[in-house]
Design goal:
about 50% helix, about 150 residues, TATA-Binding Protein, alpha+beta
């Protein structure tokens, strides 16, 4: 199994002593090197990846990747710690709540421009079959637009 978590860089930096305490408590030991941040225990392994601004000397983002054969007490405590710091699990293939909201806002805007007005078409005395056809075409284009936005934001 593999679980990934993202933390804002300064949050991680300000709380890394707690992270190290959790590692020690569960018997994970440093096995990394200067560019490779790894802690390994009997049943768990954690690798950290840092996005840093070297000029300013700050960590912008920290990604912690847990690996193990099954869920463990360490994973539970790590997850709780990350949640307490408002960190987020990385979802592969899924979209975060914020991303879904962005997509929804863009679709609403797109709809205002492209959605056919049934009332206007009826007022123009368009045949019902034409109105249905226009709505079906719009729905198909909207699905394509939604797929495009999901690709863009995932």
């Amino acid at each position: 199994m593999k679980k990934e978590f993202d933390l804002e860089g300064s949050t991680y930096s300000n709380n890394k002593a707690d992270f190290k305490r959790i590692l020690r408590k569960h018997g994970l030991r440093w096995k990394g090197s200067l560019g490779n941040f790894e802690w390994i225990g009997r049943d768990d392994k954690v690798t950290a990846y840092f996005d840093r601004d070297e000029q300013k000397g700050i960590t912008l983002n920290a990604r912690l990747v847990w690996e193990g054969k099954k869920k463990s007490d360490f994973l539970s405590e790590l997850t709780d710690w990350i949640k307490s710091l408002h960190g987020a699990p990385v979802r592969r293939g899924g979209l975060t709540k914020d991303t879904k909201q962005k997509i929804q806002r863009e679709l609403e805007f797109w709809d205002k421009i492209h959605e056919p007005s049934v009332e206007a078409m009826k007022a123009e005395s368009r045949p019902e079959s034409w109105i249905t056809k226009d709505l079906e075409e719009w729905k198909a284009k909207r699905k394509e637009k939604e797929k495009e936005l999901k690709r863009k934001y995932s």
